[in-house]
Specification:
Shape of chain A: elongated
Strand content of chain A: 15-25%
Strand content of chain B: 15-25%
Number of helices of chain A: 21
Number of strands of chain A: 23
Distance between the termini of chain A: 65 Å
Radius of gyration of chain B: 12 Å
Largest interface: A-B, 46 and 45 residues
Number of strands of chain B: 5
Helix content of chain A: 40-55%
Oligomer: heterodimer
Shape of chain B: globular
Distance between the termini of chain B: 12 Å
Largest sheet of chain B: 5 strands, parallel
Helix content of chain B: 40-55%
Chain lengths: 691, 117
């Protein structure tokens, strides 16, 4: 660590990673959009220049020199594009070049993420960029460039005159000629600008200033000259020696100042000639300037205007979420405490409802803190589509809808890979080749739609393509061949067949390509989505396309539940899956020859699942008209559950079943009720499939 | 200690500088991510010192420095600039910037420049 101590690097690392990743995403977006419109607008070039400038700067601060060097070379390239506006730019090549560089930086960032020093060598890419830059410079557009540069130099020269020669014809007979040499501290950087600043600060006090080197800004060697020989100036002034000396002594990073009066005839003046002052050791500290009390007061009031954003460690948010979960349980434990039963507690109930209101609000806020829009994840897919289109020589447009939809941060982290997989799959296997599409009378350009929207307590993400669709027979055959299903001769719905593509082992070598194969099947997609409590559905029409619908509950931690009782046990059903509840009369019950019970409701027939039978519970209500029947729905399937009675609605905190309990079909988790008893949460998605 | 307004379009840079300054007793009263916001915040917060990046969206650091100097000729603006931007730094000095810091900056340099004001 040369520049920075670890104490600096550590806290800054998160920020660095976050910001750099964000900038890279922005950059990719810019490039892909520019590529689409087949030109780089001036704003886009400017923006890319700025992004690279920023990445260069922060990477250099973090001592990630590889990234910094590469970013610098792209910055140079875009600086040239911005300033010279060459016309002969091959934008496709430019896009490829920049994208390959972002890939390099991403790779380095992922090393940083894994705690490894980013040691990638950017030289190759830097050289390619440099070669490309000189190719641009050398090509036909050069005339314009030279003109531009010439113009710029002219402008600079004008400025120089304006700045430096303020009183060129002034009468100097009354003034004293001075000579000064300034040496700067080593490693202070930009010595030429420091020299310029010195001259600039003198301009109101001195006349006819001459310097060596003369062209301090324009000449790149001036910095080196100043480093080696010091910065020499000659000027006239009517100010006293001390005054000039003090002025020059204010120069920052001043190592040594030599100031003398040139006039040899004036004895008095030569007396004033002072020995060289070495400033390194005894430079007064200017920081202790006295500040008026008033300013301090101002500082106080300024504190209240501090910025409105802070960044928070995600772990803290997770912890906060857990705590709110615990709070919701404790609230229920207090307000529905069994000790309170039968008491008339008007004031207590008032206070309790106030508590309930506040915990509810708290919960909403905590949830909203964790909500992130899907836009960044969605836009990442642009790059996926672009790269694949190039490789597969297909023409596909990605349409993004509802990117502003917000989901829990947890979901964002887990949804990216499955989405990428689905999109790759759609592009690779779904969308036909150009020729095939034209033959079928479709537009040669394929279309993939990526859409998100909120629906009830769920967020729905749809990946839709207008390709060839899934082949029902082929999938069925393949599933049978691989022994993934048994041929029972029963009717299988399209949906069931299509969902087989998510079975582990379904993807075979046959259709492995560079992109969508990779040896991992689509089962990874469904696994990842299940991990966040979601489900995937496939709909497909041959020749028209495939639609993959992902449904994910907005939040996993706390749900609104309906508690039901079966004998001594309590179960919880997520409110969102309940359609209605009713009491069934005995004569409405239909029993088929196998003994399966069903009920007709408004012309439709629904199977009845008796929970006491399902979980082997004794002493429960078995007479259908004494208990309660609850109609629940999941993924378009509906069943009626039969329980003893409804206990009431309550917010419950979902806890996973302990490890030592083997997975029970039909149970999604458990929760703690107010009385301290445990309620099992029914897995409606699994229950509707039991039938 | 002095109050500082940090202007930079990169949050990373702002935070780096902020950590350094706060560690050394400065009060960072505000941050701005472009020149226009910087001018607005300057009027609002009236800080003792402004650290100003050059390459920024909306309004660049040189223009922002000019505007700030227009409303308050006594404003103390320090340019924070990367290597290779010499001519911009010069323009900023002409526009009235008091001094400059070169990125990647070292803590001692930052302090030296800020303490000199």
């Amino acid at each position: 660590m040369i520049l920075l101590s670890n104490s600096f690097r550590e806290p800054m690392l998160e920020m660095y990673k976050f910001e750099t990743n964000q900038l890279l995403e922005q950059l990719e977006q810019l490039i892909i959009n520019s590529e689409k419109s087949n030109c780089y607008s001036q704003e886009a070039i400017n923006e890319i220049f700025r992004i690279m400038h920023t990445i260069k700067g922060s990477s250099a601060m973090m001592l990630f020199n590889g990234i910094s060097t590469l970013a610098h070379s792209i910055e140079d390239l875009f600086f040239y594009l911005r300033e010279s506006k060459p016309e002969n730019v091959d934008y496709i090549k430019l896009s490829d070049l920049v994208l390959s560089c972002t890939d390099f930086i991403k790779e380095e960032l992922s090393k940083i993420e894994r705690g490894i020093e980013p040691d990638g060598n950017p030289d190759e890419s830097v050289n390619i960029i440099k070669a490309y830059l000189s190719e641009l410079k050398g090509d036909g557009g050069s005339n314009a460039i030279h003109e531009n540069i010439g113009e710029k130099n002219q402008k600079d020269a004008d400025k120089k005159q304006k700045y430096f020669i303020t009183h060129s014809l002034s009468d100097n007979s009354e003034k004293t000629p001075y000579k000064a040499v300034i040496y700067f501290e080593e490693g202070c950087e930009m010595e030429n600008i420091r020299a310029f600043s010195v001259m600039h600060s003198l301009k109101n006090f001195v006349q006819d200033i001459k310097s060596e080197p003369e062209d301090i800004i324009e000449n790149e060697e001036s910095t080196q000259f100043i480093r080696e020989n010091g910065f020499k100036m000659q000027f006239y002034s009517d100010r006293a020696y001390e005054e000039i000396e003090n002025l020059l002594n204010e120069t920052l990073f001043l190592k040594k100042l030599e100031l003398e009066v040139v006039d040899k005839t004036d004895e008095a003046n030569t007396n004033k000639k002072k020995p060289v002052i070495d400033l390194e050791s005894d430079r007064p500290n200017m920081a202790e300037a006295i500040r008026p009390e008033k300013e301090k007061e101002k500082e106080q009031s300024n504190k209240s205007l501090l910025q409105n954003f802070i960044s928070v460690n995600v772990n803290k948010l997770d912890k906060l979420m857990d705590l709110v979960g615990e709070l919701v349980i404790s609230e229920a434990m207090v307000t529905s405490n069994p000790d309170l039963k039968g008491l008339n507690l008007e004031n207590f109930n008032k206070a309790a409802s106030q508590l309930k209101k506040i915990t509810g609000e708290l919960q909403d806020i905590v949830m909203s803190i964790r909500m992130v829009p899907l836009s960044a994840t969605f836009h990442k897919m642009n790059r996926v589509v672009r790269d694949m289109c190039k490789k597969l020589d297909k023409d596909v447009e990605l349409e993004i809808l509802g990117e502003a939809t917000e989901v829990d941060k947890n979901i964002i982290e887990n949804i990216s890979d499955p989405l990428m997989h689905l999109i790759r799959n759609a592009l690779d296997h779904g969308i036909e080749t150009r020729e095939e599409r034209i033959k079928k009378g479709k537009s040669h350009k394929g279309k993939i739609t990526l859409e998100a929207r909120n629906e009830g307590g769920e967020v729905i993400i749809i990946v839709k393509d207008d390709g060839r669709g899934l082949n029902r027979e082929k999938i069925l055959q393949k599933a049978l061949d691989h022994g993934l299903i048994q041929d029972t001769g029963r009717e299988i719905s399209d949906r069931e067949i299509f969902s087989m593509i998510f079975l582990p082992g379904f993807s075979t070598k046959e259709n492995v390509t560079e992109f969508s194969g990779r040896g991992v099947g689509m089962d990874v997609v469904s696994n990842n989505i299940e991990k966040i409590g979601g489900v995937v559905n496939v709909d497909s029409i041959v020749g028209e396309g495939t639609t993959m619908t992902i449904r994910i509950p907005l939040t996993l931690a706390i749900i609104d539940g309906m508690n039901i009782r079966v004998s001594n046990s309590t179960y919880t059903i997520p409110i969102t899956s309940i359609k209605e509840s009713f009491r069934v009369k005995e004569d409405e019950l239909i029993t088929d020859p196998d003994g399966n019970e069903m009920i007709m409701v408004r012309g439709d027939c629904y199977p009845i699942v008796r929970i006491h039978k399902l979980f082997n519970i004794k002493d429960s209500v078995s007479n259908i008209n004494e208990g309660i029947t609850i109609m629940v729905e999941s993924e378009m399937n509906t069943v009626c559950l039969f329980a003893d009675e409804l206990l009431g609605e309550q917010q419950v905190v979902v806890k996973a079943l302990p490890q030592y309990i083997k997975k029970v079909n039909g149970i999604a988790g458990c929760t703690l009720l107010g009385e301290g008893t445990i309620s099992l949460i029914l897995d409606i998605a699994a229950l509707v499939k039991i039938k | 200690m002095a109050s500082v307004l940090i202007v930079d379009d990169a949050a990373f840079m702002r935070t780096s500088l902020k950590l350094m300054l706060e560690k050394n007793g400065f009060t960072v009263v505000g941050e701005a991510d472009n020149g226009a916001t910087a001018v607005q915040k300057y009027l609002e917060l009236n800080p003792n010192i402004v650290t100003m990046d050059i390459t920024m969206p909306v309004l660049d650091g040189i223009e922002a420095t000019k505007k700030i100097k227009e409303v308050d000729p006594k404003a103390k603006v320090i340019i924070v600039s990367a290597m290779g931007q010499e001519s911009y730094v010069r323009d900023a000095v002409v526009a009235g910037a008091k001094n400059f810091i070169v990125k990647p900056f070292k803590e001692e340099h930052v302090l030296k420049v800020l303490n000199s004001l």
